[in-house]
Write a structure and sequence with these properties.
Low-confidence stretches: 382-394
Structural class: alpha/beta
Number of strands: 11
Order of helices and strands: EHEHEHEHHEEEHEHEHHHHEHEH
Helix content: 40-55%
Strand order of the largest sheet: 1-2-3-4-7-8-9-11
Shape: globular
Radius of gyration: 20 Å
Number of helices: 13
Mean pLDDT: 92
Distance between the termini: 26 Å
Length: 394
């Protein structure tokens, strides 16, 4: 099992009346940046980088950044900048860029160049994630949602060829046209950095990821729904004649570890509710605009209710497996249950949940590293994560 420390970098200072859904239907796209305080932004960015660097010191297998645009719940419009900042202040963890939103990038060749640079800056510790981007991000960048998948596929093919083919060569496609493709530098890892792709149950994505033998990463959803996704990915791989390595299946999930079950539930509730009822509260037409999903994918989404958490209580979020909360033993047991049921080999754990304080985030990160991760380590294969006494503070 590999454990990766994931961060959303949220802006927690939402208005007191943000629960007024009519006034604030979403923290994204239509939520005015007039609510953003630049002084607080400076503090948050440095705090969040400190938390990612601390995870590296504690022995997490990877630290994970991602891309969101015009959104208060994720202040990383450029994950490559964050990866570059982390490359010089981390030394052991892989850096997962999860990922670059290809359809809304006007210049995918620039993505190829930046990822190749990051591969060198990290000395080959980079994992490159590719995503389509969320519906509102297409609106924000004036890209037709109906072209999202074809733009994604072509941008991916161009980037992969640029990494693996000696140039210069010409590219004339449906969406992109380059007379010269000749990236300097080429990636350090051969033939290119590992690639990870988040999925929300789209059959097209499952098949595409299986065809390319990439890592399939879940988004936040009930365990029963995630099981259908992972099973669909394994089925797509089986149809192609192979069984995916469990390390190519990754569960993304928020986790809160307290001293015991009672205190964990008491402390976590506010922050879990902030994440699901404020941060991830979205207007469906903005998230899934017409043309963004195929009819088959949309039917599956509507059946799963993925992303509809406004009426879901904290207790239901825990029960349905959208979040893991408890003392160390309960968290270990819950992860073991999920691993047996879902068959994943990696976790993207969100330990900085919602509006958690720096102190609580640090404690959560430490307890998970010291009392959860070692349980899943195989002594013969990997050393245990360093103890807190051996670990310098950031």
């Amino acid at each position: 099992m590999k454990f990766n420390f994931f961060h959303l970098m949220p802006y927690p200072y939402l208005p007191d009346d943000f629960d007024d859904v009519e006034k604030y239907p979403s923290p994204s796209l239509t939520f005015s940046n007039g609510h953003f305080d630049p002084a607080k932004g400076v503090e948050l960015y440095h705090r969040y980088l400190d938390e990612l660097e601390y995870a590296d010191q504690l022995g997490y297998d990877g630290v994970v950044v991602n891309e969101h645009h015009q959104s208060a719940y994720g202040m990383m419009p450029s994950p490559n900048i964050m990866a570059a900042a982390l490359s010089r202040r981390t030394s052991r963890s892989r850096i997962l860029v999860l990922g670059n939103a290809l359809p809304i990038r006007g210049n995918p060749l620039r993505v190829a160049e930046e990822i190749a640079m990051l591969d060198h800056l990290t000395n080959g510790r980079l994992v490159s994630g590719f995503v389509r981007g969320i519906g509102w991000e297409h609106f924000a960048h004036s890209v037709s949602p109906a072209e999202s998948r074809s733009r994604f596929n072509e941008a991916h093919d161009l980037i992969k060829k640029a990494w693996t083919t000696e140039g210069p060569f010409e590219w004339i496609g449906e969406h992109y046209e380059y007379r010269y493709v000749n990236v300097w530098p080429r990636p350090l890892q051969s033939p290119h950095p590992p690639i990870a792709v988040p999925g929300a149950g789209s059959p097209e994505t499952m098949r595409w990821v299986a065809e390319n033998r990439y890592m399939y990463v879940s988004v936040y959803a009930p365990t029963s729904v995630v099981k259908t996704w992972f099973d669909g990915y394994r089925k797509a791989a089986a149809d192609l004649g192979y069984e995916p390595d469990p390390e190519n299946i990754a569960l993304a999930i928020p986790v809160f570890v307290g001293e015991n079950d009672a205190s964990a539930h008491r402390e976590a509730k506010q922050h879990v509710e902030w994440l699901f009822k404020r941060g991830l509260r979205q207007s469906s037409p903005l998230v899934f605009p017409p043309g963004y999903m195929s009819p088959q994918a949309l039917r599956g989404l509507l059946r799963s209710r993925t992303g509809s958490y406004g009426d879901t209580s904290f207790e239901e979020l825990v029960e349905q497996g959208l979040v893991i909360v408890g003392g160390p033993e309960s968290v270990r047991n819950r992860i073991e249950e999920f691993r047996e049921e879902l068959g994943f080999g990696q976790m993207m754990v969100l330990l900085a949940i919602g509006d958690m304080s720096p102190e609580l985030t640090r404690r959560n990160t430490e307890i998970f590293a010291g009392e959860v991760i070692p349980h899943f380590r195989k002594a013969a294969a990997q050393p245990e994560a360093p103890t807190l006494a051996q670990t310098p503070a950031p």
